[in-house]
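Dear all,

This email documents one entry for the complex benchmark we are building for the journal club exercise. For each entry we list the sequence lines for every component of the assembly. Then comes the predicted three-dimensional structure of the complex as a token string, followed by one or two observations. Please use this as the template for your own entries, and keep the labels exactly as they appear.
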Amino acid sequence: MKTLQHKHIIKWFELASLTLRENKDYLTKLDSEIGDADHGFNMERGFNKVHNKLEEFSLNTDLGAIFKNMGMTLISSIGGASGPLYGTFFLQFGMAIVTKTELSLQDFVTAFEKGVNGVKLRGRASVGDKTMIDVLAPVADRLKESLSENNTFEKVFSDIVKSAEKSMKSTVPLIAKKGRASYLGARSVGHQDAGATSSYLILKSLKEAIEE
Amino acid sequence: MVGIVIVSHSKMLAEGVKELANQMSQNKVAVITAGGLEDTSSPIGTDPFKIKDAIEALSDSNGILVLMDIGSAVMNAELALDLVDERLKHKTLLCEAPLVEGAIAAVAQAMTGADIEAVANEAKHSLLGKQTLLKPVEEQVETDAFTDVVGKEIKITVPNQLGLHARPSVKLIELVNKFDVTATVSTKNKPFVAADSISQVSTLGAKKGDILTFRVKGKQADDLEIALKGFVKQNFGDPVNTIIPQSNKKVSKHVNNKLAGIGVSNGIAIGHAKLLKNMVVNVKKEKAENTLLEISKLKMAIEAVLNNIIDLQQKTMALYGKEDAEIFDFHIFMLNDSKTLDKVEQIINNDCLCAEYAWYTVFSDLENKYLEMEDAYLKERAADIVEIRNKVISDIQRDSKNDIILTEPAILVVDEIGPAQTLSLDTDKVLGIISMHGGETSHATILARSLGIPAITAVGKAISDIKENDMLAMNGSTGDIVLKSENPKKINVLILEKEKEDRVIKERFIKAKQPAISNDGVEFKILANVSSPKEAKLAFVNGAEGIGLYRTEFLFMNRESAPSEEEQYSVYKQLCENMKGLPITIRTLDIGGDKHIPYMGIGEENNPFLGLRGIRYCLQNIPLFKTQLRALCRISAAYQIKIMYPMVGIVEEVLSANKILREVQNDLKKQNIPFDKNMQVGIMVEVPSVLFLIPQLAKEINFLSIGTNDLTQYLLALDRENTNVSKYFSALHPAVLSAVQTVIKLAKENNLEVSLCGELARNQNATKLLSRIGLRNFSMSSPAIPDIKEVIRNLSINKDTMNSSVNEYFTTLGDVKSSFSS
């Protein structure tokens, strides 16, 4: 598969909503260990709103507009820090693909990078701070590499999910530098970051969305 | 004004912070909240759209300061900024200040009309107060050792005659505190000390010509340099021609242990001695069981003494004026000095000693530092230090033995007396003061002069010759002290001298009291302008035939809230007593324009001189106005007083003010409190519109008083402070003279008394000129009265009267001026 269609995007968002709902307690458990125990709840709430909008999204062919709408939906409904962060990711993503009705790998990679940069700026976090950036930034790098390899979306997404899973697990030994967990300092070591985990779950949904 | 947005995860918290901030600003600063989420099942969180709405709600503000609580609040606020339009984004600032402290500090600053940077800056520093209170002691030790700041070096030369004494020190510290800097200062290779600590700055002992070297760190170092240079130009706030008292002249030599000292406050007193030499505090070096308790005891005592001194300062301000009141700035700064308090706390904590002992040690060291100074003037500040030391210790020990209570008239014999003690003296009972220590420029001495109590200081050990109840005489002019038991003849001489002195004063007074009658028999009334009962005392001696203008606003200045009815009553009463029953015209509160009183809450105005000032303010603040009128009406029962409204421009204002006056009088009547039903009411003629309303106003009032300064500025539309236009600012301008002539004529036609109470009245040429256009009542600052009376006595009024308009005589200001030289 060389282009990402409108239906794939809708499917992605739908699967992400379901996955985050299923993993609500898991995320909450991770967040309760070193954070404020609201990540699972917040993500479920945000993606429930997204789920409610799927019908509206399917009627709109402009992918840029859908992503932006998605971003705004998350911003206005999540409440915690993940709202502005994921919201910014999708907003920035959307801005890079204005009026497009399908995406080439090049389109996707550029937009993804823009989204990640937005998150970095918004959260002022970098790799190693024990945040979602620990997952998203290596994925953006991996995506850029894939451009020269002339791979299919299936291959690329499979690669990035593997990379994301590895990155997610690599947050366990880190000391949190951002968010509520940073108040714990060294005590945050030994726990997997909830934000990195939700990022992994969202990317996993993306891979599954094109497999069906 | 700058508006504030409060962002919090919790709606209740945001609303609570807003409630606190509104209480601070009395709802004067717009505060909008963006708290919590709409989702009732999980209401905790921040919503960027709410924040965006809040920012947009303040779009009319001059700036928008956003204060946030934790975590995502910041991120969502940033996101909100991305969502608002560029114009709004530009004037919005996200501020890292702590939410509660920051909000309170921000509104307090915003109220003043400050810009967004200033408001943000204030918010950012809002933790300082709490930090200084709670900082662990270890840290304080470090900061104390850190006395030197490397940074910009600024050198200034001490310009004023008396050097860096108490008042300039206070002013210097105020100045340094205005800027965001850390500064240390030194002179003559002494170690650098903190430039914001009174205990350290005033002990530098810098004299005229000494070079002060500042080391300043901080982004406003350059601004401080400019301000310091300006401070030098202002002669450190001292008058340029300070006369250094020539002490030597007055010292009676201590030959053969002769009992004598420096005569510092004139007058002869004869009476029995009352010894109060036990004015020392007893402090034992006791271990503290609980150091925290000791510190809190100390802080409470400091607080109590501070409140007491502030009260005293306000009382002094009302009774004796600004200069005497400023004496207590030193006390206040000293009690607030964090460096000194740090030292005391260190002793309490490190050595586990009781608060009294620690305080005593630190202040005694400080006293010694002052005593070691070469400069006599600075040396005398030691008495202030001792007074502060003892007052706090007496408060901790709940000991009142240092209160001086006299049951019958006596001459007070003391080791040393402080300014606060001097002020607390009952002037009817204290005939004179003799002290072992002290000097000519000690604060207590200055106040003794204000109180008119003869005083002799620096008597030394010989003072022990005076025993309780000894009959003695003292001469405050020469420093002589005579004990009746040793020299009965000399005492008689002094009694004769006193009689002679009284006679001289009486004669001078009789002459001043002579009425001002021109050589062709026209009688003038010469009154005084005063701002305090002290000035009234002087006015009486100078022969004022009454007070033409008592400016009550000084009673309201330099304090946190308006004086109560009782406080006003006691000051007005003192004023009337000092004028021995002569008529007194009291002007109701005249603020606004250039007279600003922070607690009055007059906001920033584009044109304050055309804004809320004088009677306009009072009519909008009726409770305050009524309090003053009530105090005045009560005084009218026993003394001849008249009430005068300032800044009247239209008849409506007089109608409203009189209505309020009648309400006050009716209330008094109901409560059976006496007042004078026929008390006269008048207005200042300052606003030119009055010229066209005199017949109508005459139905409501009894007299007019022309205020030449404001009348000139409003009539000519010239700002006298503005050097571009002030060339023609003169109350002698033909236009102003013509207005005065019109007022006199219309007043006569309408049976109104008229007087003139501006600066013009003390100008002798002006007096002559004004007498020619028919003015007979002048009110001026009292030292000018004897001369003006003399000028009038030499005038021939009937011959020189201008029967036609002044405009026929003068066209330009130059014409008026050249008429003086001819």
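Observations: Chain B has five domains: 2-133, 146-237, 250-279+404-493, 291-396, 519-821. Residues 291-396 of chain B form a domain with the Enzyme I; Chain A, domain 2 fold (CATH 1.10.274.10).
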